[in-house]
Amino acid sequence: MFEPMGFDAFGIHSENFALKVGTHPMDLIPSNVKNFTRQLRRIGGMFDWEHSVDTTDPAYYKWTQWIFLQFFKAGLAERKEAPVNWCPSCMTVLANEQVVGGECERCATPVEQRRIAQWFFRITDYAQRLLDNLDHIDWSETTLKAQRNWIGRSTGAQLRFPVVDEAGDETGTHIEVYTTRPDTVFGATYVVLSPEHPLVQSVTEEGMLGHVSDYVEAAAQRDLVARQKTDKTKTGVPTGGFCRNPATGEMIPIWIADYVLMEYGTGAIMAVPGHDSRDFEFAEQFALPIVRVVLGPGDSSETPLEEAYVGPGSLINSGPFNGTDVSESVEVVTAWASEKGWGDARVNFRLHDWCISRQRYWGPPIPIVHCDACGPVAVPESDLPVVLPRVEDFRPDESGISPLARVEAWYRTTCPECGAEARRETDVSDTFLDSGWYFIRYPSTDLDSEPFDSGITSRWLPVDAYIGGNEHAVLHLLYSRFITMVLKDLGHIDFEEPYKTFRAHGLIIADGAKMSKSKGNVIVPDPIIEEFGADTFRTYLMFLGPFEEGGDYRPQGIQGPFGFLHRLWDTVISARTGETDADVERKVHQTIRQVTEQIPDLGYNTAIAAMMECLNVIRAGGRTAVRAEVEPLVVMVAPFAPHMAEELWERLGHAGSIFDGANWPEFDIAKLVETTVNVAIQVNGKLRATISIEKNERESEVIAAARAEENVMRHIEGKEERRVIHVPGRLVNFVVG
RNA sequence: GCCGGGGUGGCGGAAUGGUAGACGCGGCGGCCUCAAAAGCCGCUGUUCGCAAGGACGUGCGGGUUCGAGUCCCGCCCCCGGUACCA
């Protein structure tokens, strides 16, 4: 068993916090790490502190950079232009979360978008595999679902619409569209290009150029967040140009609209307003024709469309395909398009490539040197790490470039290939890259010469159990899986899924709301530990709600576990030797079974409740406990209250630690069995009495006893008895009337 | 909008289709104590009733079943994620 703990402290949050408190992150992080470590030790966290990592330590990020280089050399890292949020007043790049209502969170200036060259990892190459493997890993169902949705595989077709001139003659240019409903192509009454689409200029009529470029420019002005808002009314402009619907042969107009995203599919769509709600909304607004090509149940080709119809039915107004059921129409029409040479079946993913560039200071420099002659060149592995220089003023400034680009002494270098003057990459990498591979480093933290030892790695990894927050359900876990797959393909490791089991824990909230400094409802552990002790605090955290859902931290509630541990202590200390009694013994064995079964299922709150119940039985009526009854409880409480359990274990006369060896109690099936059971007696499903009987009493006897109950008699008297239902050991139900 | 997760006493929360409310907090009464704390015993869903006992009760409305918090259909509300993905 190996359970390490580490710190992931690069990134925008640490950077902003450092700015806020006015301490350099290089000074701040070590003291924060120290404080967290102290708190984690104090609550009795049994982590292997010999194998801790700190992603901001050059000894760690040396290998983060090494990972980048492996991707680069494998052709999986590439530089391409991508839009970023840009604040024209702060002259800096903003993360999406720094854009509030379309404005810069700091200066309230409307945010624009800019395109800059950034580094991407080609995760889309792995999309199918990332999806397929989800079928074979033991993860929380909710997490699996989130990953599947994020990857977003869809099947459809890519269709080619020829651009035509006024006379209707093909110009030779084609607009490629991606659609999941190629079967509705007969209803495509116009085509829409994204404002960023490369064909925008060439398809636009001369007279429309002004309007179109105004629109394109306006779209570019808008920040990325606002651009993708769905609740605004749709905007767009006609280009004046036309293309031919390849199915109907008709000329249909080409529009530009920002509801079509360049990032997805081909950046162009065929609009089928009759059967797509977005196209419908757009068509209504601009009075574009709406044609019905699917008949729902009860519809005729004349039934007007009040809204886009996306349900089942059969094709209509679709030439040779009229009557084809939509369950097969996609396939049939795609085959036809393919035969005619203007379309092909296509699989598309929502997943984008992973942009790892950050125009920030607080992160590991991307280990690339830009040379005029050689282009981007990898820093030789022997020169790693590329150390992040200490820069006192790392605040973004008017220059609008990464903070490191202001440190000339740092970025001026020579090309590793040709020796000419060159310039270091001044962007740093995304923190998800730091956290994407840390689990591989843990067992090998004492190794300087390699990121990980292959022998140790194959012995200890992949990770058996990973428990994390659901906020990481998508990005962190997906990137981590991707990195693992690539490392496997490159021959560095022999497994391709990093975490065999993953369970998402819930969030402990306070006063019904997420804890946050701004709300002032943060629970600080130190004073609680001082008042109640770490054992009580730990036990309460596990008791206050279901682990996988979280719970509400109420300061009063800690009294429960506090009293329980006190009573347990007193009971154990004063326990006598001697014979146990049968009822208590049965309860102890039932408890052992329940706790043993529930702990692996993370059923901590109910396991603790079971132990409380057991202790209540042991102590009932001021009874003095017998050692054999309390010893199992001491062991079972040890994961929650380790300090006290260890002490009690010693007082019970054991030499070694309670955590050494196999001390977990076993239950005896024979001792679980109840000899008498309470049986509920119902009349027409309503409880009328309970009787206590021998466990395996004959059915006829049980029913006779039930019938004899006064209150039961009263309810069945004078009525016809239709049925008697007997669930042995549970209930008898008389159905009368 | 879509995708998850929820909605059960005054509160946190339990319940393989089979006695709803385990366990705990809080509250009430009692024991112990000079007193308090701790501890111990009992009560504690609402309501009618002197009682025995009855009626009602798991967000709302239907349904399946001898029996539904649990299963099915249709809604409402809360929390988290996501944002026109063609």
Written overview of the protein:
The chain is α+β, with helices and mostly antiparallel strands and 737 residues long. It is 34% helix and 22% strand. It has 25 helices and 32 strands. Strands 9, 10, 11, 12, 13, 14 and 17 form a 7-stranded mixed β-sheet that branches. Strands 4-3-7-18 form a 4-stranded antiparallel β-sheet. Strands 21-20-23-22 form a 4-stranded antiparallel β-sheet. The structure holds one RNA strand of 86 nucleotides.
In short:
The protein is of the alpha+beta class.
Summarize the helices and strands and which ones pair or pack.
Blueprint: E1 6-7, H1 12-21, H2 25-42, E2 53-54, H3 58-73, E3 77-87, E4 92-94, E5 99-100, E6 103-104, E7 112-121, H4 127-132, E8 138-139, H5 141-151, E9 153-164, E10 170-179, E11 190-193, H6 200-203, H7 209-221, H8 224-227, E12 236-244, E13 251-257, E14 268-271, H9 277-285, E15 294-295, E16 314-315, H10 326-340, E17 343-349, E18 354-355, E19 357-358, E20 368-371, E21 375-378, H11 408-411, E22 412-414, E23 421-424, E24 428-429, H12 431-435, H13 438-441, H14 454-460, E25 463-469, H15 475-489, E26 499-505, E27 507-510, H16 525-532, H17 534-543, E28 550-553, H18 559-573, H19 582-598, H20 604-618, H21 627-637, H22 642-651, H23 669-672, E29 676-683, E30 686-694, H24 699-708, H25 710-716, E31 721-727, E32 731-736
Parallel strand pairs: 1-2, 8-26, 11-13, 25-26, 27-28, 29-32
Antiparallel strand pairs: 3-4, 3-7, 5-6, 7-18, 9-10, 9-12, 9-17, 11-14, 12-13, 15-16, 19-24, 20-21, 20-23, 22-23, 29-30, 31-32
The structure holds one RNA strand of 86 nucleotides.
